## 1
Amino acid sequence: PPTAKRVPTKTLVQNVSVPDDYSWLRNGSADPDVATYIAAENAYTDAVLADATGLITTLVGDLAEWSNRAAGPAISATRDGLSGPCGAVEPGVNTFWEAGSYFYWIRYVQGKQYPVYMRAPVGTSPAAGAGCGCIVPPAGTEQVVLDLNAVVPENASYFYQGAFEVSLEDESLLAYSIDLVGSEEYVLYVVNITTGETIGPADGIRNTYYSVRWAVDQSTGARWVYYNVVDPVWGIPRWVYRFCVVECASPAHAQKRGARRGADALPRHGEELVYVEADVSLTTEVATTTDNSFLYIKIAGQITSEIRILYGPTGQFNPIVPLFTRSNGTNYDIEHHNGSFIVRTNAGSSENFEVLLVPTEAALASSPPIPIIDLATFATTTTGISHSAYQYIERIEAFSEHLVAWVRVDGLREVVTTPLPMQPSPVDSLRRLRFQDPANPRTQVYSVLPGTISDMEARLNRRFNTTCLIYTNSSLLRPPAVYALDMRTGTSTPLVPERPVPGLDPNVYFEGRVWANARQQPTDPGSSPVRIPISLVYQTGETGPLPTLLIAYGAYGDFQDPAFSSDIFPLLSRGLLYAICHPRGDADLGAQWYRQGKFERKWNTFSDVRDCLHGLVDMGLAARGRIAVKGRSAGGLVAGNVALRWGFVDGIEDRMGEDSLASVVIAQVPFVDPVLDMIDETVPWVPYEWHEWGNPTTSKAVFDAMMSYSPYHGLNASVAFPAVMVIAGMEDPRVQYWEPAKFVARMRAVKTNEGGQLFGAWVDGMDGAGIGDGGTALVLRVTDSGHFDSEGDFARFGRVAEWYGFVLRGVGVVA
């Protein structure tokens, strides 16, 4: 295997000298040794995986086959309609929305890997006046809005979609953005849908992020597109710009985007600087209320947010001042309905969020603006949904007659609806749409989402004047089905029923939620026992413990929903148990669950994952030495600690104890060096991240905690490791390539059981031909992409199949 050169350096933090022999890997193109080392690691990975080439090739085909099955019958470039309750229903369509006078949907065409955005006039759809059961347009009225197959170069190795935003005032105008590198610096294009003409620079507006909105200046008729922009120095979207598209006056007065922080630059394409956020721990985005009455900038960090109005019913706001002034540690977001702002906030003691209502006029007239921390006690504020220790409010939506709150109860998402205008109501009296039976674990694995989005943070287009709430539900086994909830009656109607997947018989699988008991329980009087939820699926025909892949994240108060993905079926069909651990640090069980897994209490995340592994073993579902654990990004801390502390290495006596559990670890774009990352403000997102991990420079307690759980700095003594695959992206702006590379270099320097074969730990021992010393593979794959997988299937399947092959061989599955 490659051996990285050692260039000892030391950094003084909290009067402690922190060593780093591999910081030179940060030098990138300035040091040819970096490219040489990375090339050597990639070549070594190829050599180690050569024995599994046949399996990996088969897995690529399996991933493609399952993807095609899940998508439904392939369609040609001309639409093939299927019979449905509202007319033609296009095969495979489960992403659609209404905006303005059009119904939009996404089509995938046979032999193409990128989406085609389509639309048809709403007036020609049975949705017009037909109730909640018909929201699908008939054939013959469609228009291609954007065909990304014609936009993305054929030789592109990476693709990620940013914005897709049609102007509601002039529905011939589209703004969209794409990233072909992985840097998360999107190129924004403005086009005329009817003529195909590109408006503005032909090569697009560079360096934008993913939020885009349209606005009309009522005094001049000018049509502007607003967007957030990445500051190349800090690496975060802290700027908001706008670009005039129609009826434009001279831009000579405008401030132009600077090439560096705080600098001015020559005019470029008529872009105007709208706002700069001075606090580099916060980011910017542009958004609108569902009723489109207000366009605003949302300034957001990990624990703090603020909203500044750009446009309202009376026109443009100048100056751009806060709606409610920020307070450190307090988040809020807004909706608007009939003269009132509806505010979701965790101000004060409402850690799980509450919903407040304040008259629009009073809020806008307040000078200075009302502090968000004082909003609940403002004279004209009323409470809509009270705070509850048992309910975490994730998101709110306002419609013409109803308010919708997306909430978590006992880790599971529910939908709360209440008529508008709101009357203060006890939490228990609100109408709820539940999807689970508390007594049946099989009903407790699902992912319900607003509209047809696949991520709670994604752009959500809604029609305001409707009583129909569209939502999507899926599970690990069940493909997405789309429903419309009649908010007047509480009745749901299928719009796009769950489509059976050929070759998938749900009856031969078990999916459900189980709970693992924490091995170390709180000792404080009155504390509740800690139990960690695990979502899982496996074939029921198998006997005895199963080879297992466990996924864990545990950060940012995130949610790892057990949503449908065709990617898992090549594993399930080979007899694996697929599990998701929901540890502290995620927010499945509310704000306290999140807070108990951050800062000085971060160790709870890792012990919870260990206890999930023990729980699966104790239940007879998994077996020590046949478990793989995967963590990506912040979950890299999980993966790193499993490798260091809870690895199973056959034949190595000191790794055969009670906590010897995982034989394989996959660390994808892993965050593994919190100490040296969090002291370096030149790394993008670091000030933002201080509110998640803490700042070791300013807090000795944080520094001590980080040193105790840092995988990178835990690599001190010689030790045996399970099989480990680390994956990095050269264009990754969040976890820079050098961090995973340093981790592998340091791990290799202390590893006592290097094995040149992929599966020395388990499979070799099965046939008596093992290498005898517990040798396991340690490999680093450095790709040319970024933090997120490409949305193009052709490249993605190969990357997934590679680490799948590593997992399967490592847990004893040979074909």
Note: The CA atoms of residues 431 and 614 lie 39 Å apart.
## 2
Amino acid sequence: MESIGEPSALPLTRLSTLKLLLQRLEGKTANSNPRYRLMTTLATPVYDRRNFSNITEYILVNDAVWVERIKTVRTANILGVAGTDVPVKDFQKLIPAYKLGVNGYSFITTNNGYVLFHPDYRPIYQDILKPNFNAVDMSEVELVDTDDEPRNNDTVLMQMRREMIEKRDGEMNMRVRVHIDSMRRASIRQNRYFYKGIKETPFSLAIVQPEGYGAVPISELFKKKNWKVHPDWIYCQYMYDTPDHALLTPEAEVFHFMERSQRPAWKWRSRYGAQSSKDSSKGGIYSKRQNKDDYFCDKDLFQSLVFDAIATQPFDEKGLIKYSKSDGLGILKMFGVSIIFVATRSGLLKWHDEVTLAEREDGVYHPYGEGYENRHFSESNNGAIDEIWYKRAVEQNSVEPDSFVYSLPFDAGMKNDSLVTASHAIFVDKEGHKAPAAVVGLQFKHSLFVETFFNITHTCMAGMKCNSTCASEELECYVLDNNGFIIISEKRENSGKFFGEVDGTIMDSLVHYEIYQKIRIYDYQSVCFDKTEKKSSASLLLTPLKTIKLAASWAVGRLSWLVLQTQLSQFLSESWVGAISQLAEEVREEVDDFVEATDPNQDFPPDPKYSDPPVIEVGNPNIEAARINKTRVRPCDREVDLYALQQEKLYDSEKQQNKPLKGRLASCSQSTFGNQCGRSFTAHRIPHSNLILVVVDTLCPCDSRKMSIEPTEVYYNETERCDRLSQPLYRQRPTECISYHPEEEEIKMCGTCSKSNFSLFGLLLPLYVILRSILSS
């Protein structure tokens, strides 16, 4: 917002405005905001606070003379309605995510039970706004852990929903199902909910904390370049965007305020603290005049960031992990470790690139190659507690505190340079309560990981005799993660796939033996595409007049399209607009003319990111580029079965040792001797990890069925549809409804809308027209 009375404090220069427009043409902004910015509208009526109005009357005197008289009467006038749109993100900024911790979250519901924001709120599907994006109910995002049918109203959830609609204060425990990683992984959590109504609004706020951890307060460092902060969190920020405050990155902004905080007379200023207190003596809401240098800070978050920087300072030192490069068995070199990182609860990320540019065979610095989706780890994983590997590492701590979580991209089988991410959560303990403080991890080459695994499993251990190994043709070995995805397989193309798609029979047996738990997830925010049915042309045989009608319609359509293509409108009016693609040379000439027309004394800093405007390189203008591809979707429900590993089934806690599973599929297939054969398999827990080893016998072939984790539509019969429509969810109307005021009787100047009567003619006329058209046909 621009300050009034300070013309020098312009928010953007003319050239910056041009760049901003070019960014919007690309569908992006400087902060890479999404295409849609969801907002909620606040409105209030504006009344004329004057209770009396002056009216002019003309009075007839002596049957010939009219006298003008001003009369004061009692009135009550409404001037209009004032409103504003508030971005939903502004609500989320008031609830700092770092205070909620990993896997903790917040959400707001309306008086109708709809969510204003929620971690599982997904209003957009492939750049398309869903039809019911503004009517997602709380019961559709909080999935209770139950085996009931879809959309079965759980008593505990419905009770909490009703209390939130009625803006009551309360807390509740609930066991819910959670899905992450694009609905490919699922887990079950015991959450604790705290909710409270927001005064003078129809909203209620809920704070959610997972049980078992959390709810414990913990409380010259930034000159290196191996650190980043959470891009969406506000540590310190200026009130107004001016050219002097145009800091390019969140890291530059943090470093800027880090230096300012060390200057004399530094003050912590809160955006919603003392600055917003009323000063009745001056008649305004601010005690002092604001200027372009006003700023605000989140003191707790900023100080937590400094604390984490000090705590992770040894990570900056060289030689943190010592190994001999000449030693071929060095741990980093053996697995091809490319990066080591640490992320903290304050949003801080630090890393070490263990493989330099000179040591890479391909001469490329980034281990992910080129392209937006193959950026450096620090560019694509700077979300700290919001990253999937961070959340999974914290969840794994409750299963095995000393373990690492290994993950692999789902498309690893299609690439040669995939990396395995291993992460481990660090907890702090205070009086029996623990809270996650950070996550450490590393990334290494998947190919070397597979090679090392088979080098170990292709031979027998020293002093032991074994008839078969993973090198044997009669055995096939897999390493699966805790959600059933393949980390290691003898066939490289299977890496990253869901094991049920490769061998659904064995996966189904692992579920039968309760090694994996099946978790059914319902997606109540999904959309479906209806197939267009092909129509028969038999109706054309009914009458030849229909053929003539279609021919006339075709001729009119072709004629209209011909008029548009020839652009005859330019001969009728000189002011016209054409939706065509502009040549690159023409755009550059316009930009050059604009720069030459600006003030030569104005200093514009170079910006290599936007040195050339985004243009389309084409030979000739093409109007086809202006066409809009319309896609129609409909809201629907989908369901999918996901799986979670039950590691306690493979471990004997009393004997403190592994308890492998040995299974056999009886009567699997006909053997060469005409008898039925059985297919054996075993499952072993891999200590200190989220992995298991599955060894399958391949001598007895089985008809392996496929298990898919693609969501499928839930079809309801007519009875179920009617039952759900006849039992609507609880809603609440606005609490205040003022329909009468005692002083209304004193007001004589009123409108006559209340005297509107039923019009019989207006009802019979449409019926007459409809009946006449039916009879004439």
Note: The chain has a mean pLDDT of 76.
